[in-house]
What we know:
There is one protein chain. The chain is mainly alpha-helical. β2 and β3 form a beta hairpin. It is globular. The termini are far apart. 18% of the residues are buried.
Amino acid sequence: MRRVPFVMEFDPTRPKWMQITDVIRERIASGAYPPRHLISEVKMEEEFGVARVTVRKVTAALRRDGLIITTPGMGSFVIEHRPEESADES
Protein backbone atom coordinates (compact mmCIF):
# COMPACT_ATOMS: atom_id res chain seq x y z
CA MET A 1 0.00 0.00 0.00
CA ARG A 2 1.47 3.36 -1.06
CA ARG A 3 1.38 6.25 1.34
CA VAL A 4 -0.28 9.38 0.02
CA PRO A 5 2.23 12.25 0.30
CA PHE A 6 1.38 15.20 2.50
CA VAL A 7 0.67 18.16 0.25
CA MET A 8 1.70 21.42 1.84
CA GLU A 9 1.36 24.82 0.32
CA PHE A 10 4.36 26.76 1.48
CA ASP A 11 4.00 30.39 2.50
CA PRO A 12 6.47 32.29 0.29
CA THR A 13 7.08 34.84 3.08
CA ARG A 14 8.55 32.28 5.53
CA PRO A 15 11.45 29.85 5.11
CA LYS A 16 10.29 26.30 4.30
CA TRP A 17 12.30 24.83 7.17
CA MET A 18 10.35 26.98 9.67
CA GLN A 19 7.03 25.87 8.22
CA ILE A 20 8.02 22.19 8.30
CA THR A 21 9.29 22.62 11.87
CA ASP A 22 5.85 23.95 12.83
CA VAL A 23 4.18 20.88 11.28
CA ILE A 24 6.51 18.42 13.06
CA ARG A 25 6.20 20.35 16.35
CA GLU A 26 2.39 20.07 16.08
CA ARG A 27 2.62 16.33 15.38
CA ILE A 28 4.76 15.87 18.49
CA ALA A 29 2.41 18.01 20.64
CA SER A 30 -0.69 16.15 19.42
CA GLY A 31 0.83 12.73 20.07
CA ALA A 32 0.86 11.79 16.39
CA TYR A 33 4.62 11.41 16.92
CA PRO A 34 4.84 9.79 20.37
CA PRO A 35 8.01 9.55 22.49
CA ARG A 36 10.76 7.49 20.83
CA HIS A 37 9.20 8.02 17.36
CA LEU A 38 11.93 8.14 14.70
CA ILE A 39 12.11 11.49 12.91
CA SER A 40 13.45 10.33 9.55
CA GLU A 41 15.28 12.88 7.39
CA VAL A 42 14.67 10.75 4.30
CA LYS A 43 10.93 10.57 4.97
CA MET A 44 10.74 14.32 5.57
CA GLU A 45 12.54 14.96 2.28
CA GLU A 46 10.03 12.77 0.47
CA GLU A 47 6.96 14.02 2.31
CA PHE A 48 7.65 17.73 1.95
CA GLY A 49 9.60 17.64 -1.31
CA VAL A 50 12.60 19.54 0.05
CA ALA A 51 16.38 19.13 0.04
CA ARG A 52 18.35 17.43 2.81
CA VAL A 53 19.84 20.77 3.92
CA THR A 54 16.30 22.04 4.62
CA VAL A 55 15.46 18.91 6.62
CA ARG A 56 18.65 19.29 8.66
CA LYS A 57 17.59 22.82 9.60
CA VAL A 58 14.29 21.33 10.82
CA THR A 59 16.00 18.71 12.99
CA ALA A 60 18.43 21.32 14.37
CA ALA A 61 15.51 23.55 15.37
CA LEU A 62 13.65 20.65 17.02
CA ARG A 63 16.82 19.73 18.94
CA ARG A 64 17.24 23.35 20.10
CA ASP A 65 13.61 23.31 21.27
CA GLY A 66 14.28 20.14 23.28
CA LEU A 67 11.74 18.08 21.34
CA ILE A 68 14.09 15.51 19.79
CA ILE A 69 17.44 13.92 20.50
CA THR A 70 19.83 12.78 17.80
CA THR A 71 22.10 9.78 18.28
CA PRO A 72 24.85 9.39 15.66
CA GLY A 73 24.31 6.27 13.60
CA MET A 74 20.79 5.76 14.93
CA GLY A 75 18.76 8.84 14.05
CA SER A 76 16.61 11.49 15.68
CA PHE A 77 13.85 10.54 18.11
CA VAL A 78 11.09 12.37 19.96
CA ILE A 79 12.20 12.73 23.56
CA GLU A 80 10.42 10.93 26.40
CA HIS A 81 9.76 13.98 28.56
CA ARG A 82 8.78 17.19 26.78
CA PRO A 83 9.49 20.60 28.36
CA GLU A 84 5.79 21.61 28.55
CA GLU A 85 5.15 18.55 30.75
CA SER A 86 7.64 19.90 33.32
CA ALA A 87 5.83 23.22 33.45
CA ASP A 88 2.52 21.42 34.07
CA GLU A 89 3.99 19.47 36.98
CA SER A 90 5.32 22.58 38.83
